[in-house]
Amino acid sequence: MPIFSRRAVLSRFAALAAVQMMRKPSMARALAMKIKEQPPARDVISLSALPAWDKTISTISPEMMGLSYESSQLSAPDFFSSANTELIGLFKKLSPRGVLRLGGNLSEYTQWTPQGASIATDVPFRAVMPDPSSGKTIQPMPLTPTAIRNLRGFLNQTGWHAIYGLKLAHAEPALVVEEAKFVAETLGPRLISFQIGNEPNHYVLNRLRAPGYNFSNYFAEWSRLHSAVVKALPSAKFAGPDIAEDLNWVRQFAAAAPPSVVMLTGHHYAEGPPSDSSVTVEKLLSPDPNFDCHVEKIEAISRSARIPYAMAETNSCYNAGKAGVSDVFASALWAADYTLQLAQASQNGVYFHGGGAGLYTPIAGGSGKPFEPRPIYYGLLLCRDLLGCEMAPVTVTAHSADVSIYALKHPNRIVVINKDASDALINLPANQPAFVVQRLAAPSPESKIGIRLTRQRLDKPLASVQVPKFSAAAITLERGSVAEAV
Ligand code: BDP
Fold first, then answer.
1. Whole-prediction pTM value?
2. Atom of ligand 1 nearest to the CA of 358
3. Were 138 and a residue from 109, 119, 376, 421 both cysteine, which residue would form a disulfide, CB within 3.0 to 4.6 Å?
4. Which residue's CA is the nearest one to ligand 1's atom 7?
5. Residue of 207, 353, 360, 361 to test ligand 1 pocket, by largest number of atoms within 8 Å of CB
6. What is the spatial distance between Cα 382 and Cα 92, in angstroms, rounded to a whole number?
7. Domain annotation for the chain: domains and CATH numbers
8. pLDDT tens digits for 113-134?
């Protein structure tokens, strides 16, 4: 029997309840027509959204939103410091209580250097890019006490907390314990947990371990380092196993995890590698039943282990992203939908990987360049006001697979992410008109600039709201205070 995610189940009901099936051009066709500068006659998909406000599917964690960086970013100690006011401002705008996850492939090449100096550089806020590929020889990067003290200042200023990745593949246990002690003492309550090792299920692929390396080998290594850290820091908390995709490792880790493990973690990249010609904007915006099934499995593992799960490293395309996909407006629509899908499936966090001028980075800049939001950042911003809110189930009539609809409570809101090449007319529940509409839009899914997140208080409440193709809207169905337009 096929497994369906809750969202898919709701959509299936919606399809059964469909009052009208709309004919619409396939997205591929629509994009092709747009490129030929022959805009098609517009079809409008008409949908009715019926939330069950008396039910709650999940509550979005106030700490749902996060960013992930390579640990080696700490080798530039001024990057995450209270001196980096531009970056602090962009973090705060994204979430008042976000999570900064430090890890990635390069975490295996960091070197705790308690007495040493950081890499000398005259460039302010030297940025480290996401690691584009695996299996190379990489020079170890020094991490000094100054970097950790500065990180505490950065976290204090932003209100964020950290998940700190310790290396496993090249670990010298005594040094890792020393690093962990200094990090725990310095970050204090700003430290959520440690992780040990990045994507251990790819250690063979990344030539960090010999072929045949499996979960048992990993867990034996993990347990030795974990015990050493816990001996020095009895109250230390851990997240793991921080794998790439393979849920068998998560399942086994959850079953064997000691009580110090407070969070299960894994990674997901929607597409990749960038050299693959099938990695496109169209694919990024299309439904992915395999991923829906993956999310469903995560929910089951987390529920039965009673340990929350976070997507601790994620983005649109692995191997550092793809130009024209990861750095354009489509990634914003994908990221908003993805965040709400994971929140609806009770995941506790989603930390988008980035850094420097990386193609998929939510915030670009550093190394002497100003810090600035990339398109994907705006998709995350759409979710900011939803943090901490309860989600209700919503039945949609005249279902379209490329339109995602979520219902949020207190105040009651409907979020529509129209990834379709047709406009969507959203008919609201009877006697629940729209009072405020926040819109996320850009000239096209391929736009790098011109992205707007605006909020409009309506002069007259509306019984239905049009959400143009390739745009999103958060529709407030109650009167109330309205934050300033972003
Ligand atoms: C992940 C790694 C991260 C890379 C990313 C990528 O953990 O360090 O930057 O892939 O390929 O697997 O972009």
1. 0.91
2. 13
3. 109
4. 104
5. 353
6. 14
7. 23-58+390-485 (2.60.40.1180), 61-386 (3.20.20.80)
8. 998 766 667 799 999 988 876 5
